[in-house]
Amino acid sequence: MNPIMSRSEAADLVVAARTRLGLSWSEIAEEVGAPLVWTTAALLGQHPMTAEQAERACRLLTLDESVAESLQRQPARGPDPALAADPTIYRFTEALAVYGPALKELIHEEFGDGIMSAINFRVGFSRVPDPEGDRVVVTFDGKFLDYRW
Description:
globular, two-stranded antiparallel ribbon, alpha+beta, single chain, Cyanate Lyase, Chain: A, domain 2, 434 Repressor (Amino-terminal Domain), 2 domains
């Protein structure tokens, strides 16, 4: 019996298949039947997929059942230290370093003592045309969880 493929190996195969087949993440998400950002994160190893979702993705990507099996496993979530140096990811870190304290204050002022859930969470992503250069719009939509004693 062979061990189950690692999430990172499955993610590498997904990225290679997507690139070679000329598929967009949007096309894959549509086939999977799940939101774009969630599907992309799942295929990159950050969320477990259902058997049906994994099978649909692998069928579209012409990947075998060993990849589908890996995509259904519970991931070890968290940042890859090597990715922290990527300019796009670093800018998100920088934006949260600059605006995070202000957002925290505003959340507490508006909602009270608590946090925004990253579990009960949605992420939106869009491109907005602008005369000075297109804008990237990322929306974090998390349930407010108040602290209770």
